[in-house]
Structure formats: C-alpha cells, structure tokens
Design a protein that fits this description.
By secondary structure, this protein is of the alpha+beta class. The protein is 32% helix and 21% strand. A 7-stranded mixed sheet has the order 17-18-16-15-21-22-23.
C-alpha cells in the first residue's frame, strides 16, 4: 500500500499547542450513532457524543427497518452536542469522515429531500424469494468475477429491486427521475452538504462494493448488473474514493468544514487497528460480525465462500487495496436471544475454566436469518445440539457465545485456503471482545494469537484517519500511527480437544440446512421464523421436560 507523507502533520505534534487541529469521525451502526473529535494524528479523543437507534416496529416477519429521518437527526444531534463542548473551539475541526454500516439501503426524493422508504437493514430478509428465484436459474457465483460477491439477500441490489417492484412511491419517483437510492453514507453526505439545495450525491468504493452493483475491477457501476437489476443509473450516487474532499458541511456547528472521508465501518475498523499490510486480519463482533483480511492490491476471488471487496481506497488517483471478507449474520444477536429466552446469567457463563468442567458440550448455531459466509444458506435455521439431563440454561448461553468463535474459525479456515497461507494473528474488537473467556476460547479454537485493543473507538478512529489523510487536509500520516495497546491471548487448548470440538460444531451446522420447503409457494417476508420457531419450540419443550424430571 503506497501512502504519501502528509505535509501538515508536523504542525500537530506539539500537544500543548493552543490551536491544535482536530478531525471528526461520524459512525453510524445498527444500534447507535456517534461522533468523536480526535486530535489530528492521534488516538486522543477531545469530545464525543452517542445516540441509540431503534428499529421501526412492524408485524411483518423478517422485515428490519429504521427511520432515515431518525438516523439523520441522531447524527446531527451527535455533531451539535460534541461541538458545543467547551474544549472544541470553532475553526479547529479541519475535516470530518463517515463510517457506516454498509448493508442498509434506502430511497429518497431528491426534489423534496423526503425519504421514499424506510432504511432497509442488511439483516432484513424480505428479498429471500428474489434470491431463490435467481438461484433457480443461476449459480450463486454467477457475477463473482464482476463484483466479487455471491447472490445473497444481505446485499443492497436485491433490496433496491424489491423497492422498485413493491413501493408505488419509489416506482413513481424512478419514472420521474427524482429518486435517489443510497446506503447510509450517501443519505448523510447528501444532507450534511446541503440536501435539496445542492447536496453532494456520492458514495465510496467500500460501500459501493457491498451493493452487488459495482464492478470490483473498475470501481464503477457495472452496466450489465445495472441492466440485470433494472436500476436507473441516474438514481445511483457517484462512486468516489474513501479519502478525498467531497464537499463542505452546511450545518452551523461544522459550517464549511470539509467532509473528506467515507468508509464502511468494517473497513474503518480494519484501518484503525493498523491492518495495513497483506495478510493482516481483523474480526469485528457486534450484533452481526465480520472477519476481513487485507490482500493488498491483488484481488483474490474466493473458492471457499468468502467475498472479494475493497479494504481501502486513498484518493481517486490511487489504486484500491482489496480484502477477503467473511460476513457473519448473527453474533451478539444470537447470544442476546438465548440469554432472554433461557433467562441465563452471563456472569456464570464467562468465568475462565468453568466450561472445562462439563465435557458434554452444547452447540448453538445462530441461524436466526440464515447463514452468511462461508455457507451462504438462506434457508438455514437455528439448532441447539447436545442437550441432556445435566444441561443448564447457562450451558446454552455459553454455547451461544462460543458460536461466535466457531463461526470465526469457519472464516479463518476459508481464508487459509484462499490465501494459501495460514493466519497467525487475529485482531478483534466489538462489544463481545470485552469477554476474556470468549477471547481465550477464540485463541484456543483457532489455534492462533488473538489481540484485543484497549482503545475501543477504533471505527471512529478509522473514519477520522481517512478524512485527515485526504488531499487538501493532510493532517494524518497513516503510515506512522503506533500500534494500539492490546490484551493478547495465546492458545492453551490441546489439539485433540480443539479438533473434536470443531468437528462437533461442523456437524451441528450441517443440521441447520434446508429447513425451508422451497417447492411450496413461500414468501420471503413470511417464511423467516417458521422453521426456526417450530424447531426451537420442540427443543425448549424437550429441555423443560428433562429439567422437570430431574
């Protein structure tokens, strides 16, 4: 990765300097929005503010939506409250970057600025029938050499096609050439730079790569894919690099500050954790998850269930850095579901060494909405395997937590095969990375060193880094960032136990497949919970019956 030096960095190294420049990082996730103000070229946070997000309530199974206005107002609130702090002086914030959850997509009217639809989240599975119809006629990897992706309901193109087919307001706006489709970065950038009064309609390559519509070779919208999905080209944003000045912010609290960075949240985390070289790998554990490995300027098309994507793209004149990624549909969400259903106490499940006392292991496969990489099984549903008379609620919760590690091991094994070299070290962050037992188990089951940074705002740091590095800002030297202080975990599990447990996990995963009868007239917005609900209901009844007999 060829990075230029930043000419202005030397002016920010003296921490006592009164007018020291600052860089803002706006992060939009699934559950919250935050804005962090960093001292340029450092991990020091001057001020931050965070707001929680909620999903739109709906009775339609499998639909997961958020209100775009709520997302925008939350972002504005975070910016305004952080900038209102006494430490943040007017004129000191020199640029702002955005990191966002890539899979969420929406439509809005460019003439009024009003949303035409709710924001549809990546985990929404209303398009499962469309994917099934696609797979009846095509291999799931039909377009892999074009966009790097298998066909899946998690990608935006299927959701855009659904909106054009099913939402009359979107249909009319498309016919009248006033519709904008975009991921959350495009919605926020357009509004923050003026909205209907000249807002900039752009996205970056890391977000566009997740839509299914971008050509991974040219970093432009692919004409064949645009035609296949029937998306009007004038309704899509211009694709730009992740680090350049797109426009100036018009909001009073950041008036005329350059918006100079847009990057997917997983890529921002990869960058912030200093995974700059080929072979560096990073896992993020939130409600969902991802494991991404930097492959440098070489594209690797996976033969083992991973996706080819853009890791970084520093400026329009630079070549993109590629990555192999394994998206994971459910990590924290599955654990929270089990904790609620079984009334488990997390403190009793995460004590190091406690799991070793029970050799009758329980396995939970959290296919709440199917499985992503490396299986790509839309019709997979949850299973709990290994219940017996001695099983306790806490054992099931521990199994749900451990499923995060097993799913990560699945991705690691696929990476080893695609990269033709074993990973030796994995960096991890996200909410579950605070669990010491879980991180030790990840090191054990993967047989590799695992590092968890003590600094927790890595995604915001990545957003600030791409903004500070942009040409015309040049206040962040990405090459010279020090390694973050980390807690490191090394493998302690025996080879025999590791492989036996992983074999049992793979057997459990195989039992989740083909739970949907696709020969019947099923609908993607109604099928989602039938298989999982029926199966888990029987499992719960059996478990409760056994417990009562004790």
């Amino acid at each position: 990765m060829d990075l230029r030096p930043c000419s202005n960095v030397c002016s920010v190294t003296k921490k006592e300097e009164v007018g020291e420049p600052l860089i803002g990082g706006l992060v939009v996730g699934i559950s919250n929005v935050s804005f962090h103000v960093f001292k340029a070229n450092s991990t020091e946070i001057v001020k931050s503010h965070r707001v929680s997000l909620t999903n739109v309530l709906t009775t339609r199974d499998g639909w997961i939506e958020q209100d775009p206005i709520m997302i925008l107002r939350s972002a504005e609130e975070c910016i305004d409250k952080a900038m209102a702090a006494g430490k943040v002086l007017n004129g000191r914030v020199m640029a702002v970057g955005i990191a966002n959850q890539r899979g969420t997509v929406m439509a809005w009217d460019k003439t009024t600025g009003e949303p035409l639809s709710n924001a549809i989240l990546s985990s929404d599975v209303r398009t499962a029938r469309m994917v099934y119809e696609f797979l009846k006629k095509n291999d799931k990897y039909k377009f892999q050499k074009t966009n790097g992706l298998p066909a899946s309901s998690c990608f935006s193109a299927f959701k855009i096609m659904w909106l054009m087919r099913n939402d009359p307001a979107v249909q009319m706006a498309c016919d009248q050439h006033r519709c904008h489709f975009g991921t959350i970065d495009s919605w926020l950038t357009w509004n923050l730079t003026g909205g209907k009064q000249g807002g900039v309609f752009v996205t970056d390559t890391t977000n566009a790569a997740y839509t299914f519509l971008m050509n991974i070779n040219t970093c432009n919208w692919d004409p064949a894919l645009i035609k296949y999905f029937g998306v009007p080209l004038d309704a899509l944003p211009e694709i730009r690099s992740s680090s350049e000045i797109y426009g100036q912010i018009t909001r009073e609290s950041l008036l005329k500050v350059p918006l100079a960075g847009i990057i997917g949240n997983r890529q921002a985390s990869l960058l912030g954790h200093k995974c700059h070289r080929p072979g560096h790998a990073k896992a993020v554990w939130g409600s969902s998850g991802s494991l991404m490995a930097n492959t440098g300027e070489n594209k690797i098309y996976s033969k083992h269930g991973l996706i080819t994507t853009i890791a970084f793209h520093f400026g329009h004149s630079s070549r993109p850095v590629y990555a192999l990624e394994g998206p994971i549909a459910s990590i924290g969400e599955g654990a929270q579901w089990v904790k609620k259903m079984f009334n488990s106490k997390s403190c009793e499940c995460t004590v190091p060494g406690k799991a070793d006392k029970n050799k009758q292991y329980v396995y939970f496969v959290p296919a709440l909405r199917g499985l992503f990489a490396p299986y790509w099984q839309e019709d997979a549903r949850c299973v709990i395997v290994g219940l017996n008379r001695e099983t306790k609620n806490e054992d099931i919760y521990r199994a749900a937590l451990e499923s995060s590690c097993f799913q990560t091991r699945d991705i690691i094994d696929a990476l080893d095969k695609d990269l033709k070299m074993p990973l030796r070290h994995l960096k991890v962050d996200g909410g579950l990375s605070n669990d010491c037992y879980l991180m030790q188990f990840q090191a054990d089951i993967s047989n590799m060193q695992v590092s968890v940074a003590s600094f927790k705002e890595i995604t915001a740091l990545g957003a600030a880094m791409v903004a500070g590095y942009a040409s015309g800002v040049e206040l962040w030297d990405i090459r010279c960032m020090p390694e973050l202080k980390s807690n490191t975990y090394t493998p302690k599990m025996s080879t025999e136990e590791r492989e036996n447990r992983y074999i049992d996990w793979k057997r459990s995963v195989a039992r989740t497949f083909n739970w949907i009868d696709r020969s019947s007239d099923w609908d993607g917005c109604m099928y989602c919970w039938i298989g999982a609900g029926t199966m888990l209901a029987f499992g719960l009844l059996a478990f409760l019956f056994i417990r009562r007999k004790q």
